[in-house]
């Protein structure tokens, strides 16, 4: 079944020269999709450029009998995002699937984070998915169909230390995905977000100086980036036609469906609230349901399987 699952489809995968994106590109191609492998070949902080990684994945796909072309445009630029979608049109005549995977890290504790460190991550990790998705939207609308998969992160959905820029972008991606799902539903277009757990170049930048950090990194090294791909391929297929507006997670052999924000407690008064009555009644009433300052690792405490 896998060989025909995406037959006739054309997919664009951003940041697919390495890691999670590479695994997704290879798996989509194995399922029959023709793939635009987009990657500027930059460092984990977004610096430098190397045409090699994207072309190498293209060659892997072609060697396996698939069809692919390389693209080195940047997701962080409106015009270049449109150019990479045009690459799909020029090479394969259409576009059906957009996987917004490209990302960078600039980890810094909040009170030391510079404007440049914040904006650089937002530009790639949040503006990028908007630019690329927006560039594909007219094509999806015209053909009455299309599928977006946006890579989010538990850093945004739950939280992590020293990642205010990355967390803000990745939680924004989840909201962007939901909005696209609602706005484009009438055109038979789906949009979902997936949080991957995987040992990649970006994860490799996490400090491992204290015993706690070393233990965390040892656990992360067990996470295989290629394990994300089968779920993304399934989600990109017509067999998932009823799945949209959702947030998923994939961690080796585990797949999660994430909750989305809903009220969990309510306080009401017929007399209207004053600051004093809020302090006296509301905070004590809600206190047992306050969320602790958990990091992702505090929630996902078990070893990956």
From TrEMBL:
<dbReference type="InterPro" id="IPR036291">
    <property type="entry name" value="NAD(P)-bd_dom_sf"/>
</dbReference>
<dbReference type="InterPro" id="IPR020904">
    <property type="entry name" value="Sc_DH/Rdtase_CS"/>
</dbReference>
<comment type="similarity">
    <text>Belongs to the short-chain dehydrogenases/reductases (SDR) family.</text>
</comment>
<dbReference type="InterPro" id="IPR051687">
    <property type="entry name" value="Peroxisomal_Beta-Oxidation"/>
</dbReference>
<dbReference type="Pfam" id="PF00106">
    <property type="entry name" value="adh_short"/>
</dbReference>
<protein>
    <submittedName>
        <fullName>SDR family NAD(P)-dependent oxidoreductase</fullName>
    </submittedName>
</protein>
<dbReference type="InterPro" id="IPR057326">
    <property type="entry name" value="KR_dom"/>
</dbReference>
<dbReference type="InterPro" id="IPR002347">
    <property type="entry name" value="SDR_fam"/>
</dbReference>
<feature type="domain" description="Ketoreductase">
    <location>
        <begin position="9"/>
        <end position="202"/>
    </location>
</feature>
């Amino acid at each position: 079944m896998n060989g025909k699952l995406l037959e006739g489809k054309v997919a664009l995968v951003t940041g697919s020269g390495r890691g999670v994106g590479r695994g997704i590109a290879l798996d989509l191609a194995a399922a029959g999709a023709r793939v635009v492998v987009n990657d500027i070949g930059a460092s984990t902080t977004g610096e430098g450029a190397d045409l090699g990684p994207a072309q190498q994945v293209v060659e892997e796909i072609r060697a396996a009998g698939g069809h692919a072309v390389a693209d080195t445009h940047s997701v962080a630029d409106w015009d270049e995002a449109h150019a990479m979608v045009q690459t799909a049109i020029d090479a394969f005549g259409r576009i059906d699937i957009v996987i917004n995977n490209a990302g960078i890290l600039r980890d810094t504790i909040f009170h030391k984070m510079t404007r440049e460190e914040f904006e650089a991550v937002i530009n790639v990790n949040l503006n990028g998915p908007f630019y690329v998705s927006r560039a594909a939207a007219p094509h999806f609308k015209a053909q009455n169909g299309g599928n977006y998969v946006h890579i989010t992160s538990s850093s945004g959905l739950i939280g992590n230390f020293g990642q205010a820029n990355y967390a803000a972008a990745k939680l924004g991606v989840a909201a962007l995905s939901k909005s696209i799902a609602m706005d484009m539903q009438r055109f038979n277009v789906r949009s979902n977000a997936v949080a991957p757990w995987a040992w990649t170049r970006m994860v490799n930048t996490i400090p491992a100086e204290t015993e706690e950090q070393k233990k965390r990194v040892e656990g992360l090294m067990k996470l295989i980036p290629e394990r994300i791909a089968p779920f993304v391929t399934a989600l990109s297929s017509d067999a998932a036609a009823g799945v949209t507006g959702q947030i998923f997670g994939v961690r080796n052999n585990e797949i999660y469906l994430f909750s989305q924000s809903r009220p969990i407690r309510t306080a009401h008064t017929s007399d209207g609230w004053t600051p004093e009555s809020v302090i006296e009644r509301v905070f004590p009433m809600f206190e047992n349901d306050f969320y602790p300052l958990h990091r992702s690792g505090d929630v996902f405490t078990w070893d990956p399987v």
